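pinned: reference chain
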Amino acid sequence: MKNRNYLRWVLSLICCILLASCNLIDFSEDCTYYGDVEIKPDWSALAEDETKPLLTDIYLLSPQRNYTYSITADTLVTGIQAVSYKLLACNSYGLDNISFSGMDCPNTAKAELATFEDRGRLYTVQAPALYTANTDLTVIPFESVVSEPVLKSATRQINIDFVVIDNTDMGVSSISGELSGIAYKYGFKPLDALESSAWLAFSSVCNEERINVFSSGLKVFGVNPDKQAVERIDNLLDIALQTSDGNIYRESIDLTNIFNGFTTRMIHITIEIRLGLMGMNVEVTGWDISDDGSIEL
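pinned: its structure tokens
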């Protein structure tokens, strides 16, 4: 009987020590608690002509602890420290000409397109199908919470139709261009300023039904030049038109005002080109923005 009472006393003492060191009711800040998270990426914003990426990168970022996962579908992760996180999500697998940096902090996380210099200009490439999410998550001790980050496109589409009005007997074999004020970095931080200081070279395709119309499609992170940035440049479009006899005509046009405030998914611009004996004249004859909602920078 004495041994049983002694054992009971020892167990009571141990319980008191545990309760004193880590109060399970008050969740003392001196203790570390853990919970579970069911991550369910929401791909409902995926474009109709694009397929769901094979992998989704998940970053759980907090001052206390960071976690990183690459998941293929809805995933339950266990043993996550119970604190508040900033959850970043994206698809990096299989994307070309792009790199990611600063992904251990929501304020420095960036995706950067490849760039190169030519003739004193900084050029970038067309943006891949990058989808991102930035949301908050709080892990609850000893419980399981559900997080459904909505991944939205980080790219915008620029469609340009060049309509050739030919006052001569010359045929047009090709039209190409270079557009400035292109952003080559995407910040995961909401409303992050775009670094719009690069050029993007592009070509066009002749319309099969209307041989005087040449169409171009550009995918970019943004084209709004930051008016306060030191290195920003306006949205200038350099056009090069080659005729069937081998002559090349060049002209430039300022599109800064057209792109001012462009925050939707798509913009369509129509540019009329008049060919004459004295050269080439270009003019924007129309433009419209899609109603597919505003992009989250």
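why pinned: The CA atoms of residues 167 and 276 lie 5 Å apart. Residues 15-26, 293-297 have pLDDT under 50 and may be disordered.
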